[in-house]
Design brief:
single chain, 307 residues, alpha/beta, TIM Barrel, 8-stranded parallel β-barrel, two-stranded antiparallel ribbon, 9 helices, Xyl_isomerase-like_sf, MbnB/TglH/ChrH
Length: 307
């Protein structure tokens, strides 16, 4: 096991906290290592969801994961939003706060989608400065996740992996390595996901995400529904070997099954922590293997619970 990254320990295997599982968790107090919450679901809540969260936080470690920081937006940083994040983190003793390398809106309007950014020097300089500002306001390191994406900018001058690596080093922030997102984007943009994971600075990785996705034949979409596929487990094993193990979480946000099913899925990670395990190579997704004959746009999916 490597040393805690940026002061953060390996919390073990956790799942995303979702309202449909509230009653089960309160009644059965399952042996899950930790929970991750969608920050925006609780920042302005004073009702039952917040009350339940505070009860759960008394027993389990909590990590906050946001979808509206919009670190890549040209809008000024929303200091009111950041103060709410900071207050919630203090209330539930959040182990860390994370969000995505993306933008989510413009002119004060939120698209409720994680939109891609151009990977070039100008964008890098801009985002690094904003990360530093956010970390000063939150008074803690920010953890940022690699996004899944469905298009690229012509004026990008570097790969996503190079951008993320340089961003983490120059801003002195942590990384949330979503291996499902790596796989989804690698299929959509035809790059090598193994090279991507190998290039990420292991000492910067604080957390890992696992999830299912939807194969639309011509592309994959990060829908967070269904089980984790073998190629993603393969990337997880590589990540585990490179980092020595980090807090790992399963996201399941659509067609959510009973809690034991979700918990059982993340516990599969234990078998891929075996250094000697050899996972068979998987053939790339093909149109004939698609989950659906339709080829929908990503916007037609709702990939995350938001109340």
């Amino acid at each position: 096991m490597t040393e805690p990254r940026l002061g953060h320990e390996n919390l073990g295997l956790g799942v995303g906290l979702r309202t449909v599982h509230f009653s089960h968790i309160l009644e059965h107090q399952p042996e899950v290592d930790w929970f991750e919450i969608i920050s925006e679901n609780f920042m302005d809540s004073a009702g039952r969801p917040r009350h339940v969260l505070e009860q759960i936080a008394e027993r389990y470690p909590i990590v906050m994961h946001g979808v509206s920081l919009s670190i890549g937006s040209s809008d000024p940083l929303n200091r009111d939003y950041l103060q709410k994040l900071k207050t919630l983190a203090e209330t539930v003793n959040a182990r860390w706060i994370s969000d995505h390398v993306c933008w989510t809106g413009i002119a004060g309007r939120n698209t409720h989608d994680l939109l891609p950014i151009p990977y070039n020097e100008a964008t890098l300089t801009y985002i690094v400065e904003r990360i530093r500002m956010v970390q000063e306001i939150l008074e803690r390191p920010l953890i940022l996740e690699n996004p899944s994406s469905y298009l690229e900018f012509q004026d990008s001058t570097m790969s996503e992996s190079e951008f993320v690596c340089r961003m983490a080093e120059e801003a002195d922030c942590g990384l949330l390595l979503d291996v499902n997102n790596v796989y989804v984007s690698s299929v959509n943009h035809e790059f090598d996901p193994v090279e991507y994971v190998q290039s990420i600075p292991a000492e910067r990785v604080v957390q890992c995400h696992l999830a299912g996705h939807t194969n639309c034949g011509t592309h994959l979409i990060d829908t967070h529904n269904g089980h984790v596929v073998n190629p993603v487990w393969n990337l997880f094993q590589l990540m585990h070997q490179r980092t020595g193990g980090v807090a790992t979480l399963l996201e399941w946000d659509a067609d959510i099954p009973p809690f034991p099913v979700v918990h059982e899925e993340v516990l599969k990670a234990r078998q891929y922590m075996d250094e000697n395990l050899v996972i068979p190579e998987q053939t790339p997704p093909a149109a004939a293997q698609a989950d659906s004959e339709a080829i929908p746009h990503p916007a037609s999916f709702i990939a995350a619970e938001f109340e």
